[in-house]
Design goal:
The complex is a heterodimer. Chain A has 14 helices and no strands. Helix content of chain A is 69%, strand content 0%. By secondary structure, chain A is an all-alpha fold. By secondary structure, chain B is mainly alpha-helical. Chain B has one domain: Orthogonal Bundle (MetI-like fold), CATH 1.10.3720.10. In chain B, 43% of the residues are buried. The chains are: A mainly alpha, B mainly alpha.
């Protein structure tokens, strides 16, 4: 701070408190709604103070779910979401780090072409090519499987670029020394490059986990069997029924549970999250 | 392209390392995109038995279809509003946090987590708050004599999705603005303060111009976000309604192709969207090579 201005300090805090309040309020209302007893939402306005039924609502959703909407119990959807996020994270990092290694540490025909093919994935979000991508996945017989849920989302230009940029900053002497000592490409990658990339991998994992968790359209298309529903897509089905049968207390319990894992990841790994976010976009 | 001074000389290994990434890219990205381009020039008969090549007919039909042009306009309103609101609010919050020394971490933590909320969940949160019969906000608005109903009023529905999309994007912009402000050397603002510039003048004449690379970058990212990543928000709340009022381009591709089964038209729309993304990515990368400087 350059100089002391008490009035401006107060104003700063006021702005921030107001900002935080706006950001937190919808989640507060959702949480309060999720603690209400059944029947609260037949009439009147949403209450703003906690109700008595928090434990029952969450237990009911986790073990039974909303059977009227055809959605399975939440524990199953939470497990599916977790698997999906973890497989996408692991897959993206694994294939990106080896392709960045190939691009930086080898010279071979069609290297630039390969780089551009990877680059193209940036330009084709799933939303704009849904029908043909769906056709490919269905022709390969991958509907209703974890492979179908995750494999098409695993290619990643951003991760490849990040690792490429990072490898370019590693001093050449390191590799020369390794070669003098007789290390081949696999050994160099495993014993030197991989340990050096640890922080980058961790930061990227946080971002990719969130990316995998919040996927919506893709699971909606490839899963028709409720055993493969993820929680983020399942919520839509529940909410669609909430207007006819006012079971908002149950829907909001599901909403809170669907938000919690990735939000906790952001809060507890904030340093890695910020690093991952800021660096993948540069 | 840049590489190392010394390299490994294996012949087959680099191809092996690139194979998984390239295979997935070709099978799930390039092949479907090529299919979309192909079917955008074709028309399928209603029973899906015959397809015929129709040149640019799908495209000309789109650009004479009032629904599609309307969707273009809706997308423009939506994207511009979300970009402007999310960036303005984030800039204000980042400037405030940047003034603080002790409590900045607490505020940052409290502000960044919506990044991790899925768009569809963000949509449902606000859908619930604005629910015309039990929602808390229509009740509050009612006290001022304003009737809220996003099920019948297109304007209300548009405001709803803009608010939900903005709410989710503030955290992202906030982090980038804050990082940008923290990289501005203190000596600049200190010198200005000695010359008698007050806090607001310092912000507009020093900090804000120096942030222009961040601002420009965020603008591209936000337009991209509003146009493509908000599918979940629309699908979770209004499903494009009422009466097409929130049917933005990315939702219309899905609506016409998957629900309406009009493959040719949906493919043509996909191709148009791809061109928009390519333009945005191109602008973004041009800018990274040569940053906006003053």
């Amino acid at each position: 701070m350059v100089e002391n201005r008490p009035f401006l300090n107060v104003l700063t805090h006021l702005v921030l408190i107001l900002g935080v309040a706006v950001v937190v309020f919808p989640v507060y209302v959702a949480f309060i709604a999720s603690t209400q007893a059944p029947g609260t939402f037949f009439r009147g306005v949403t209450p703003l103070l906690p109700g008595p039924a928090m434990v029952e609502n969450y237990a009911h959703m986790l073990t039974e779910g909303m059977s009227t909407s055809g959605a399975p119990p939440l524990w199953l959807m939470l497990i599916n979401s977790t698997w999906m996020a973890i497989i996408i994270t692991g897959g993206k990092i694994a294939i990106s780090i080896i392709s960045a290694y190939a691009i930086v540490y080898f010279k071979f025909p069609f290297r630039t072409l390969a780089f551009w093919i990877i680059f193209v994935t940036l330009m084709l979000p799933v939303e704009v090519r849904i029908i043909p991508t769906f056709a490919v996945v269905s022709n390969l017989g991958l509907l209703n499987s974890y492979v179908g849920l995750t494999l098409p989302l695993i290619a990643s230009a951003t991760a490849t670029f990040l690792f490429r940029q990072f490898f370019l900053t590693i001093p050449d002497e390191l590799m020369e020394a390794a070669r003098v000592d007789g290390a081949g490409p696999i050994k160099f990658f495993k014993d030197i490059l991989l340990p050096l990339s640890r922080t980058n991998i961790a930061a990227l994992s946080v971002i990719m986990f969130i990316y995998g968790w919040v996927q919506y359209l893709w699971p909606l298309l490839v899963t028709t069997d409720s055993r493969y529903y993820t929680i983020v897509m399942g919520i839509k089905r529940m909410a669609a029924y909430a207007d006819q049968q006012p079971q908002w207390h149950l829907v909001m319990a599901a909403v809170i549970l669907a938000m919690l894992p990735p939000v906790l990841v952001v809060i507890f790994m904030q340093r890695l999250f910020v690093k991952g976010l800021v660096e993948t976009e540069k | 392209m840049q590489t190392k001074r010394t390299i490994f000389s294996n012949k087959g290994l680099p191809y092996l390392l690139l194979a998984p990434q390239l295979a997935i890219t070709i099978v799930f990205f390039i092949w479907p995109a090529a299919q979309a381009v192909k079917s955008s020039f074709e028309r399928e008969d209603p029973f899906g038995l015959r397809t015929s090549f129709v040149w640019f007919q799908n495209y000309t039909r789109l650009f004479t279809d009032p629904n599609y042009l309307n969707s273009f306009g809706r997308t423009l309103i939506f994207a511009v509003s979300v970009t402007f609101l999310a960036m303005a609010i984030a800039l204000l919050l980042a400037a405030a946090v940047n003034r603080l020394i002790r409590s900045s971490n607490v505020y940052t933590t409290l502000l960044v987590w919506p990044y991790a909320v899925a768009p569809v969940v963000a949509g449902i949160l606000w859908w619930f708050m604005f629910n015309p019969s039990i929602g808390i906000l229509p009740y509050a608005l009612g006290q001022f004599g304003i009737t809220w109903n996003h099920r019948t009023s297109g304007t209300d529905a548009m405001i709803l999705v803009i608010i939900a999309a903005t709410w989710k994007q503030i955290s992202y912009n906030f982090l980038f603005f804050l990082a940008g402000m923290q990289s501005i050397p203190n000596s600049l603002t200190e010198a200005a303060a000695i010359d008698g510039a007050g806090p607001f003048k310092r912000f507009w004449t020093i900090v804000f111009p120096l942030l222009s690379p961040t601002t420009f970058f965020l603008m591209i990212i936000n337009i991209n976000y509003a146009m493509f990543d908000t599918f979940g928000i629309i699908d979770g709340t209004t499903s494009g309604g009422p009466n097409q009022a929130t049917n933005i381009l990315v939702y219309k591709v899905y609506d016409d192709g998957f629900l309406g089964l009009n493959i040719g038209s949906s493919a043509a729309q996909s191709v148009i969207l791809m061109l928009i993304v390519i333009a945005l990515v191109f602008v973004q990368f041009r800018f990274i090579e040569r940053r906006v400087q003053y």
